[in-house]
């Protein structure tokens, strides 16, 4: 389906109506507003693709706004990683903005509310405020401070700002309606006192605006036309509108869509941080994490993630997306783009007894047989001693085993047909060596032997192989919805990482770079790890060749 044929999602419908009616003079300005308290995850990618996608589609723009109103959990490390990830996904923001840059303006807005008797300073503790709020069916009761005069409120709020009070001693609340069925309108908190160092404003401020007060007002300051957030914020929308109306500022509007939930993973930064802090994973970019940086390190491409976000679409109802869809997207792409290479993960030695010792045949293998011209080729050295996979040999092979066993023949990929003549075992009965004879006129591409064999196996020349560590990743959790469990950390999949310390790879793979996708023939898709060194090569498995979990479910 091309973009033109695709049905509009409900947000696009709203925007097209607004454009038709000439609202905001046809201007579309969206924003992506991360809180810099963690690394971006695949859920954020959905929001990024949506917000930036709308900006692009409607000739508009998208701001990147760091929602940095909570000094304690935020850090510039997160700011940098977020910027890097958005660019990596292929998007550019119009402006890089920080809610903390608006602290002065937000303070003035709060003063304006006080002046209009629409906000007051409350000395009650958070427990007192909560218990006086009532329940959805019972109205709340005013605290003794609700009737303070405007002058007193102005003086106290100024003193809060000047650092006269300790954390929690006072708050600023909107004066709305203590009986409103929407609890968010029962005099919500606008400011709290927090004597904490902020990563951008330092110690300038000791009062910080609450999310509800900062968010809509920041949208308005930037003149955002369509402020898109997730469904949890539906109950906040009335307050969003109330504040904009009472302050009489630019009428930004909030629209809500369903957040991305994905099977076998957890998505909230708070939980991801726990995994990092408890050392259950090797940092935010551990390739098993659902973060953008982890997917990058694992070998996912920006296009595969954008494609995934496009396929899942934008809904108004919560749902759960199968992680297999994301795996499908990268597998489908890598099948077309990955360069083919040979690697042996569980080696046994194959000796070709009729091939001269010391002789080397320089075979040529196309990089990518999926495209015309093969994207060039590489040299694959062949000699009389090769590594092959242990499970490509069986002593007592069943009938349909089209690999090696006594008397059986296979083709060695890019090379010759060989027939097994003998094998060796150690004292424990493990196979240690397989002996074969090769058919000299059966070379791939110039085969005149007339022989037909059913199986082709991969191999690496012993004398030319490089060593590498290979990391096989699987799903981090073994429960579809780990968050539904009592403790989500109990459902970590103990087999989510298998390390092969010494695999043998064809020499050309020493030139690999992180992010470049390779298909290790018959094994899966791999990329070089970002922490790999020339002394110690490390490859990450991006995804298997086939969906192995689909089989699990059918069993
Ligand atoms: P988390 O709970 O993971 O910390 P958050 O919503 O607190 O997420 P923010 O940094 O505040 O994280 O989010 C920035 C933007 O990304 C918000 O507009 C938010 O709605 C959106 N977002 C966050 N998680 C998801 C998700 N799972 N699916 C879609 N959008 C999301
Ligand atoms: Mg948040």
UniProtKB/TrEMBL annotation:
Domain Glutamyl/glutaminyl-tRNA synthetase class Ib catalytic as annotated: residue spans: 28-335
Residue ranges occupied by any tRNA synthetases class I (E and Q) anti-codon binding domain in the UniProt entry: 456-529
Keywords: Aminoacyl-tRNA synthetase, ATP-binding, Cytoplasm, Ligase, Nucleotide-binding, Protein biosynthesis
Gene3D superfamilies named among the record's database cross-references: HUPs, Ribosomal Protein L25, Chain P
GO cellular component, one term: cytosol
InterPro entries: aa-tRNA-synth_I_CS, Gln-tRNA-synth, Gln/Glu-tRNA_Ligase, Gln_tRNA_ligase_bac, Glu/Gln-tRNA-synth, Glu/Gln-tRNA-synth_Ib_cat-dom, Glu/Gln-tRNA-synth_Ib_codon-bd, Rbsml_bL25/Gln-tRNA_synth_N
Principal location class: cytoplasm
Positions bound to ATP: 35-37, 41-47, 230, 259-260, 267-269
Residues the record lists as binding L-glutamine: 67, 211
Annotated compartments: Cytoplasm
Pfam families from the UniProt entry: tRNA-synt_1c (PF00749), tRNA-synt_1c_C (PF03950), tRNA-synt_1c_C2 (PF20974)
Bias (Low complexity) ranges: 134-144
Region of interest (Disordered), ranges: 126-146
Family recorded in the similarity comment: Belongs to the class-I aminoacyl-tRNA synthetase family.
Protein name: Glutamine--tRNA ligase
Organism: Sphingobacterium hungaricum
Classification lineage: Bacteria, Pseudomonadati, Bacteroidota, Sphingobacteriia, Sphingobacteriales
């Amino acid at each position: 389906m091309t973009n033109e044929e695709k049905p509009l999602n409900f947000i696009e419908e709203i925007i097209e109506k607004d454009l038709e009616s000439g609202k905001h003079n046809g201007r579309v300005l969206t924003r992506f507003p991360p809180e810099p308290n963690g690394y971006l995850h695949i859920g954020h990618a959905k929001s990024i693709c949506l917000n930036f996608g709308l900006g692009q589609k409607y000739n508009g723009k998208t701001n990147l706004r760091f929602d940095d109103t909570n000094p304690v959990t935020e850090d510039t490390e997160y700011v940098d990683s977020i910027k890097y990830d958005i660019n990596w996904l292929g998007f550019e923001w119009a402006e890089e903005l920080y809610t903390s840059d608006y602290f002065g303006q937000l303070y003035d807005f709060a003063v304006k509310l006080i002046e209009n008797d629409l906000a007051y300073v409350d000395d009650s503790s958070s427990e007192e405020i909560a218990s006086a709020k009532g329940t959805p069916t019972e109205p709340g009761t005013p605290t003794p401070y609700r009737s303070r005069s405007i002058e007193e409120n102005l003086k106290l709020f100024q003193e809060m700002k000047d650092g006269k009070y300790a954390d929690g001693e006072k708050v600023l609340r909107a004066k709305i309606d203590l009986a409103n069925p929407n609890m968010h309108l029962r005099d919500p908190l606008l400011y709290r006192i927090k004597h904490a160092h902020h990563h951008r404003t330092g110690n300038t401020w000791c009062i910080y605006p609450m999310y509800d007060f900062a968010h809509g007002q920041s949208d308005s300051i930037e003149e955002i036309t369509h402020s898109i957030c997730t469904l949890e914020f539906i109950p906040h929308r009335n307050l969003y509108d109330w504040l904009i109306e009472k302050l009489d500022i630019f009428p930004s509007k909030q629209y809500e869509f369903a957040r991305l939930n994905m099977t076998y993973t957890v998505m909230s930064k708070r939980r991801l941080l726990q995994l990092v802090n408890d050392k259950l994973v090797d940092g935010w970019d551990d390739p098993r994490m659902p973060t953008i940086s982890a997917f990058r390190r694992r070998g996912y491409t920006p296009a595969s993630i954008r494609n995934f976000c496009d396929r899942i679409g934008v809904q108004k109802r919560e749902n759960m997306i199968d992680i297999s869809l994301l795996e499908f997207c990268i597998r489908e792409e890598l099948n077309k783009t990955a360069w083919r290479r040979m690697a042996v993960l569980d080696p046994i030695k194959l000796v070709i007894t009729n091939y001269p010792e010391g002789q080397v045949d320089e075979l040529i293998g196309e990089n990518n047989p999926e495209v015309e011209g093969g994207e060039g080729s590489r040299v694959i050295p062949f000699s009389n001693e090769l590594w092959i996979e242990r499970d490509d040999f069986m002593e007592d092979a069943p009938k349909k085993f089209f690999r090696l066993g006594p008397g059986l023949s296979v083709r060695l990929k890019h090379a010759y047909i060989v027939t097994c003549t003998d094998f060796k075992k150690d004292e424990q009965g493990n196979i240690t060596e397989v002996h074969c004879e090769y058919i000299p006129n059966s070379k791939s591409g110039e085969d005149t032997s007339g022989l037909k064999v059913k199986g082709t196996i991969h191999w690496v020349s012993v004398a030319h192989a490089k060593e590498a560590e290979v990391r096989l990743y699987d799903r981090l959790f073994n429960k579809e919805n780990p968050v539904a469990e009592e403790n989500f950390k109990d459902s970590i999949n103990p087999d989510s990482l298998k390390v092969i310390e010494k695999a043998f790879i064809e020499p050309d793979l020493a030139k690999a770079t992180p992010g470049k996708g390779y298909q290790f023939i018959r094994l899966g898709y791999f990329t070089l790890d970002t922490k790999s060194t020339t002394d110690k090569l490390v490859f990450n498995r991006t995804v298997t060749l086939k969906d192995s979990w689909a089989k699990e479910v059918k069993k």
